[in-house]
Amino acid sequence: MSEQPTPLPDDFRTWLAERGPDAYALVWVAEGSEPTGFEGTDAPRVGESGIARADADLSRITAQDVTHGREKTLRRWLRLDDGVRHLAILTTESGTLREHTPGELAAELLHDPANDEARLTEQLASWFYRKNAEAQQGLELGWIAAAAAWACHMRALASYPPPSVLTLSLERAGELDEPTADLVVTTGLRIVDLIDRLERPYRIRTELIEDWHAVESLAADVPALAPMADWLLDQIALRDAPAQQLRAVLEPDVTDYLRDRRADGALLGATAVLDEARAAHLAQARETVRAYTAAAHAGRESEARQLLDAFPIPARDLSTSGPAATWRENSATAADAVEDLDAQRAATGAEGSTGYFADPELLHAATSYLAAREGQLHLRHDALGRLAFPASIPRDLPEELVPVAAAQTQRRVIEAFGTLERAAEALQGQLHYQLQRPVPAHRRATTDAESDLFNRALGALEHTAAATVAFDEADIRVRLQEAMSRPAAPAASPATPTGHNEAHVQALAAVPAVPGVDR
Fold this sequence. Notes:
The chain folds into two domains: 12-231, no CATH class; 238-466, no CATH class. The chain has helices at 12-17, 70-80, 102-110, 117-133, 139-154, 163-173, 178-197, 205-219, 226-237, 241-250, 255-262, 276-296, 301-310, 322-330, 332-348, 354-358, 360-388, 402-417, 420-434, 447-466, 473-485, 499-510, and strands at residues 23-29, 61-68, 86-93, 96-100. The protein is mostly helical. The radius of gyration is 32 Å and the shape is elongated. β3 and β4 form a beta hairpin. The protein has 22 helices and four strands.
């Protein structure tokens, strides 16, 4: 067994299956994000990375070890777990990955007559003691962090450490007393109760906020709780109207990607991969909305207000502009985005939407999102329509207004995307996505025309950016500071008058004085 991570095989599932029927892979799982936004995200399975899901991105994993048998695998996991990165336990059967928690392996070993129970107790106690010793808070709070880590990873065995494990751990720390033992048990039960509440179908916002505060205080010491904290923030944001308006402004349009994911059997066995540019924009939007939500519900109102003020909500247009209508007529993706928005609005107000009517805050936030999203889509489609289909100059327009009218395209692009560079990134991302192969069956007839349209808009955008003089505020600030820091030049001594200077003074004196003009 190697102590160093090994390169990931090209076909990890097949590679692991070839290691044998009792082979377990210990892999480090890097952080990832769901590219589909807030809705449709299931509650996290606390203690698992989710890397075994069918649509998971296996590029996030780094293989550490392959072990054989439950006992060796659990021993290695308990030794390697550093409390910072997620160490997943994977097996494969018929090419399908399955993720195990260490608690599952411990529970199976405990009921195995051939297992050495005393050695298992020693190993679990050593790991539990280390969770307390390595906690950032230390002292009593260290045991809270240790109990939370146990509840995340070992709850398949027990909600809190069994008496034999707990006693041995407290003895090692020299804290074998009843209050500390009660603290561990109480904390473990509380965390398991929090985890169980994730499965409830309807939760009011006040309950979600209370749970988030409880989890957030422990997530620094127990990284396994971080996905739970993020998911709770997302659920709070779904019930917060300003958060949903902020989301509507910041999220890129990924309608094409979402439609491809929903297309049954149309991808010819290929998995749709969101382009890197829009995936980055989506992640930025999610983190910004989470930052606002955390600030708004943690007593930092000024920080929350600053985020809302930085990204103003677009007004909803009562009519569609000419450039936006032209873009939607020619772009299948734009037409799909409008259609999907209408479908979301219809679903929100449908009689069968029991989830929304059971939670008025959720309904209000959803309608706030849809109104802001409609305004944001109009901004984007208007800007893209001006780029791809520039209007001719009106015949009766005064010549002085011609450059003013031309500048409106740049203004609308910046209004819709934030900067010209961000607009270029979004267009390049959509173009890259359209060119992926194989092309889904449901958009084979439109992909070529859509790609040409994005190329056309991108070319016009690049021409607009090239014709614009960049205003580098940072460079100007540096130059100003350099100028201000230079030592002052010594005062020049009065120069000896020359014939030229005397003639110039005499000429000025001969000019009649003009009222209000200072010579």
